[in-house]
């Protein structure tokens, strides 16, 4: 299988389109053999990991997948011990987890929406479900008796999307730079009562870690950790969101100088991805896709054209931070997963070729969903798209261009 065929199969794209893209990029960037080097690196890492796991290229896809899952289970167990056996049901229980996550990323002071302004917006549009669940008639009482950080966080899962999009979000259009202030990112463990409220309003299973980019808050719903992979999932999500908040804060600072600051902020928070047709020759423009489109539609046409995803950048940084734990806690082996974001390959099982992702987050999510027999691949696929562009222009340049062109929704390589 040649490099074009392999990459096309991994990305579920047409081989001819991948070949045309690389030929165009080679000409534009005055390079050659970039895709071949990416596949050579992929094949080398696959062989290296298989050797560590005691497997070979002849191993079946089930054997490779299960070996990765077993490795994760052991890593998760060791991390659970290192972080003082967090169950994430009380602040004291999570203290070590939060402290280590912040230590790895660093104490970041950002430009975040003032709590007083957020409270003012809630006065203008009271959150009906939350107030009913907690027994409040007035917003004043809610904000006086409850932790504001917890109230702001709980809006994400207590209120309907209709209320969020039609009542609260439109108020963001009127925000100005004066409504923001410098302060540190906060990690908040919500009280147990919010778990009961969340279970009342959310019918489907939800992530217990989320964030508010504009407020610089990362919050954890106190769901007891009792599933293999949960410690690693929660901890890696904390790292991911810390880096994501830092990334988006750069955009908030940049946009705060513009007359349409509020509208740009709303677009960021919605996760808008432009649908306009990209012009120019193949490869000259790369769409910026700021969320995982495959979660909503595996066949979204934007997934099969040149694009980059900032989510992958946050995961790259989070996974590199994870490897630092090996120094902090001798006995951990997260270096095993270093730089495996875009790594994966096809393995046979009775003649049936299936893609196995070596991506840490795909593996973690698959482990947590093991009983439901759900396997994840999209983190790996998006990482490969980022890897292709980064090999041509450099990782730092790619991130710089992403931030500078976020508002228009695509990178134009003529700007290099």
Task: Describe this protein with a few key phrases.
single chain; 416 residues; mainly alpha; 2 domains; 3-stranded mixed beta sheet; 18 helices; 10 strands; 10% strand; globular
Give a brief description.
The chain has helices at 3-11, 15-29, 34-52, 61-82, 91-105, 115-124, 128-134, 139-145, 148-158, 161-172, 192-201, 230-255, 261-270, 310-323, 325-328, 360-368, 378-393, 395-404; strands at 109-113, 180-184, 186-189, 209-212, 217-220, 285-288, 307-308, 344-349, 352-357, 410-412. It is mostly helical. The protein has two domains: 1-86 and 267-416, no CATH class; 88-224, no CATH class.
- Beta-strand content: 5-15%
**How many separate helices?**
18
Major sheet description: 3 strands, mixed
> Percent of residues in helical segments?
40-55%
SSE class: mainly alpha
Unreliable residue runs? none
User: Alpha-carbon distance between the termini?
Assistant: 33 Å
On the 0 to 100 scale, the average pLDDT is: 93
Kindly provide the radius of gyration, computed on alpha-carbon positions and rounded to a whole number of angstroms: 22 Å
Instruction: Please tell me the total number of domains.
Output: 2
Query: Helix and strand succession?
Result: HHHHHEHHHHHEEHEEHHEEHHEEHHHE
Number of separate strands = 10
Shape: globular
